[in-house]
User: Fold these one by one.
Assistant:
Number 1:
Amino acid sequence: MTDTPGANRPFLIGLTGPIGCGKSNVGRVLGELGGTVIDADALAREASAPGGPAVGQIRDRFGSAVFSANGELDRAALAAIVFDDQAALTDLERIVHPHVRQLINAQLQVAERDHVPFVAVEAIKLVEGGLADQCDEVWLVECSEPTQRVRLAQRGTQPDDVERRLATQGPSLAARLTQLLGDRAGVRHLSSEGTMDETRAIVEDALADALEAFLADD
C-alpha cells in the first residue's frame, strides 16, 4: 500500500474488539456497502493449514502432539495449551502474526489494484499484532459482557469454553485496547449492543463520516 490518500488507494479500517461483540457483523455490513473485508483469523488458519508458512515453526515450538496422524494441525489440542498458558499463547502469536501480515498485505495490494474504495481488516489482535498502525481508522466494536455471553452461547459455544475464552482475552478488553490505542487520531467506538438494523445504521453513518474526511484530504 502507498501512503497517498484519496482515490489512489483504498481507505483502510481496522476492526477490533472483544470476542462476541459483533466485529463480523460490522464487517458484513461494510462488505455489503462495497468494501473488501479481510478476516485475519481466516488468514491465521490459512497460514497454519497443511503446507502453510507457519506449520514448521508451530511444530518446532509445540511438538507433534498438536498435529494429527496425517500432519494436519489439531487446533483443539493447540487451543487447550495456549488457553491455559500465556507464554505459549505469546509464542504462537509471534509465529503466526508475521505470516498473517504478509497475507493481509497481499490482499491489500489486490484491493488497491482493483480500485476498491475501502478495506476493513477484522482482527481481535489488531493492535497487539501491529496492524493498527497501517490503518487510517481503527473501529473498536463494543458490547456489554452479558451480551457477549449470550452471543457466544448462541454460536453453540459450551459454557466452560465461553468462560475460558473470556478469561484468555482478560477483563475489560475494550478498555485495555482503548489505552493501547492512546490518543491517536481516527479511533471510533461503535456499540453493537442493539439490533442488527441499529448496528447497520451506526456503521453506515461511521463510514460516511470517515470517507468524507478521507477524500477531503485528497
Number 2:
Amino acid sequence: MRFDLPEWGERASGFAVRYNGAVYGYLNRCAHVPVELDWQEGDFFDISCQYLLCATHGAHYAPDSGRCLMGPCAGASLQALPVVERDGKVYLIVKD
C-alpha cells in the first residue's frame, strides 16, 4: 500500500507492506539515490516476494528491517515509518 506524505515535502510518499504476517512502513525512497522504489505504483516486492526492490538501481531490501542486502547501497537502510494495524486497517502514526 502506497500513500502520500505531504508533511515530508512535494512528491514524498511512503508505503506499507505485509511480510511474514507483520506490517512494516517505509519512506518510498531508495537509500542509494533518492528515487521511489516502485516501478509500477504500489509494486515493491521482487519476483520471489522475499525482498523489497528498487526498480531503478536493483537494490534488494529486507522487508522486516529495511536494510539493503544487495545492490549499490548494501548496508544502508530505508527510513522506517511508524505504522500500526488495528481491526485489519493500517495507520501511519503521526506525531504532533
Number 3:
Amino acid sequence: WLRRAGAPSGGANHRISARPLGAEVHSAREEKPASTVLPAGGAVVPMAWAGHLASVEVTLNGQGPFRFAIDTGAAGCLRIDEAVARKLGLPVVGEARVGDPSGRNMKTAEIVAVDSLAAGDARFAGLTATTGDFAGRLPGEKVDGILGFGLFSDCLLTLDFPALRMTLAQGSLPLDGTGIVPYRDERGIPSVTMRVAGVDVDTDVDAGAMGGFSLPESFAAKLPLAEPPRVVGHARTVSNEFDIKAAGLEGDVAVGPTTFAKPMVEFQPVFDVGNIGARVLRDFAVTFDPKNHRMRLSRSA
C-alpha cells in the first residue's frame, strides 16, 4: 500500500506465503479459482474510481453487492475486509504471512474460504482470500476488498481505465500485434522488462500502486536525470514506510513498443524491482492474457 506525501495509503503488490491448516507452507501466487464461467460473448463490468484504484461491484456467496478494488500487483485471488468476512460468516481455513515484495516485517492474516464470486455475468467458484482492514484506507472512499491478479487466471482481462470498464473474455492475444508485450509472473503478478534511457529494469505492472514509473534507488546513479532526485512524498506498504524521491528523466521509457518521452521517474529504497503504477496505466486500456503471458497497452484517444 503506497501513498504520496499527505495522501492516504492505497493498493500495491503483496507477497503472501500461506499455511492452510494441517498443510505445508505454499505460495499464494499458485492460487486461482477452482472454476471460471463466462458467457460466450464475455462479460463487461462498469468500473468506478476509489481514490487512485479502479473498482467494481461484486457479490460473494450470492450476497452483496460489495465494492472491490482491482489490483494487478496483488498475487492470489482475493483480499477481503475483516468486517465483511465476519458478516458473511466465511470459514477460516488457514493463515498467511503477508507483506510487500521486500519480504521485511511480514504480518499474519487469516485465510477464509469463499464459495463463489460474481462480477457482472462472470462467475468464479472455489476461492480463498486473506483478510485485512481495507474499508478505512481511502478517505471518502470505501472498498470491501481487493481482486488480485490470480482471480483472472482463466480470462482474457481488459482494464479500460479511460472508459471505466472491465472486460472478461475467452480467447488470447496474438503473438505479434500492436502494443503486445510479453510478461512474466513468477511472483504471481505481471512483470515486464522496462527500458529506461537504455537501461533494462525488471518492473511490476501494478494498477494498485499510486505512482507512475518507480525505480529502485540504486538506478538514480545510472540514469541521465534533469536534476538530482528530491523527496516528493512518503510511501507506506503493508509492512514498510519510506520516502520517495523523483526527478525528470533526460531520456525515454519504453514498455515494449510503447514509448514515454522524458517522463518524471520516482526512486524508492526498499524494493529491487521497478513499478508501473496507476498514474501511467489510467491513460490506457490494458489487456492481460495470463495463459500466454502477453499484455497489450492501447493508448486512449
Number 4:
Amino acid sequence: MKTTIDAAGRLVVPKRIREAAHLQPGTQVRFRLLDGRVEIEPVPLSVTLDQSGTLVVAFPREDGAALTKSDVDETIAEIRSGIDSDRLGE
C-alpha cells in the first residue's frame, strides 16, 4: 500500500492498516527511525493497577475514550486465541 505525505508533513494511514492495528482517531503514535526505516507504533496507555477484591484492575492515568463492548470482546477473543495457540504448540 502506498500513501503520500502532504506539504504539512501529514500522511494518511490506509484504512486496512488502521483497522488491523486498531488505530482510532486520537490514538497517539510514536515514530522511530530504525535501520533506515520509519516505524510507527501506538503509544501504550499508561495505567495504574489496583486490587479490587481478588482481581487486579487497570485504571488509565489519563482521561481517554472508553472501550466499547466490541473492543473488549475482540481483545478477549485475541487473548483466548493466543492461549489456544500456545496450548497447541503453534
